[in-house]
Amino acid sequence: MKQSVNILLSGGGTGGHIYPAIAIANELKSRIPNAKFLFVGANDRMEMEKVPQAGYKIKGLNITGFNRSLSAKNLTFPFKLIDSLYKAKNIIKQFKPDVAIGTGGFASGPTLFMANKKHIPALIQEQNSFPGITNKLLAKNVQNICVAYDGLDKFFPKEKIIMTGNPVRQDIIDISKKRKEAVKYFRLDKQLRTLVILGGSLGARAINQTIEKNLKDLLKNEIQIIWQTGKLYFDEYKKYDQIEGVQTHAFIQKMDLLYAAADILISRAGAGTISELCLVGKPVIFIPSPNVAEDHQTKNAMAVVKNNAAIMIKEDEIKEFSKEFDKLFEDNQLQKELSVNIKNLALPNATAKIADAVEALLN
To answer: Which of 198-207, 311-320, 324-333 has the lowest mean pLDDT?
Structure first.
């Protein structure tokens, strides 16, 4: 391998595409100290803020998604696509990457398409159990496709698939030793079981409304609740912080301690979150967001549920929440089964395996 290599990464739109790209870059940086990195994102999307915060350069394309319903915005899509392809071509010409990595999202389409045109070795990473449209289109021309779920040969060429899992934060790999620290950090009663509610960084309206509606009944179980409401809903729900045994948070930085504190979790079903929860190995009720492209979250949750490794409640069945929660809470054997089965799905070395695949392309 050359002493100095140029690595191009593209992925964004949501944290689920951005954080894996950053994790891969960090791993490669530790292996190839002289490597130069450049990210390509979509202007006005969160990667334009998050990538520089992680210490990497990023260039933006004017690409947006194609609205599946009839929309006036779709009229501008062909022009934005052509403009983005032209800009991606210039970025590649100037940066001269030795390898290109795509993690999904609007910008990775034009970027990896132009990298393929220039015969630059490329790899895509698919986080979900059901691939996004960008990765489906790119799959034909890339060398490797790193996946986190079985059965993706229905969508991708089998010979290109490498089962790696999704990159996860390293501090959650062994949380069993952090319970004592977690109890202290969240000021918990160590005699009580802890229910953790996760609605994502922005929050989940349906989950928040369900917890609010069932709060009194939940507390009758002699549990304490750590409720991450999300930034969008914190002002609406922070009043419940005054109830004994309930604490509300807009956002939680110390996710390792949160997972260590949890006995049962209620969560959305983003691909990254599921990968983390497999490592954590605690009983989970998934309430997938129905508002995600191609209903990814429901499909992700189903991939876990079919292994008897979690419970899923769809938003349109959320009136069953109380019954499902009580069934889980009162059945210690079921909790143990779910914990063991979800832990068996964990793939803790995902980032290293993806970096191995990138190094193989560089060699």
So the answer is: 198-207
Section 261-290 average pLDDT = 96
209-227 average pLDDT score? 95
C-beta neighbour count of 53 within 10 angstroms: 8
What pLDDT is recorded for position 97?
98
Non-local CB neighbours of 318 within 8 Å, separated by 6+ positions: 206, 210, 287
Say if residues 358 and 123 touch (Cβ distance below 8 Å).
yes
Domains of the chain by range and CATH? Answer: 6-167+348-362 (3.40.50.2000), 171-343 (3.40.50.2000)
pTM: 0.88
pLDDT band with cut points at 50, 70 and 90 for residue 44:
confident
Burial class (CB in 10 A: 0-12, 13-18, 19+), 31: middle
| Cα–Cα separations (whole angstroms), residue 190 to 82, 197, 338 | 59, 18, 23
Exposed/middle/buried for residue 191 (C-beta within 10 Å: 0-12, 13-18, 19+) = exposed
CA dist., res. 115 & res. 99, Å (int): 8
310: Cα separation from own chain's centroid: 17
Report the alpha-carbon distance of residue 113 to residue 102 in Å, rounded.
10
What lies within 8 Å, CB to CB, of 10 at 6+ separation is 21, 39, 40, 41, 100, 101, 102, 103, 105, 107, 108, 111, 112
- pLDDT, tens digit, 9 for 90 and up, residues 113-144: 999 999 999 999 999 999 988 899 999 999 99
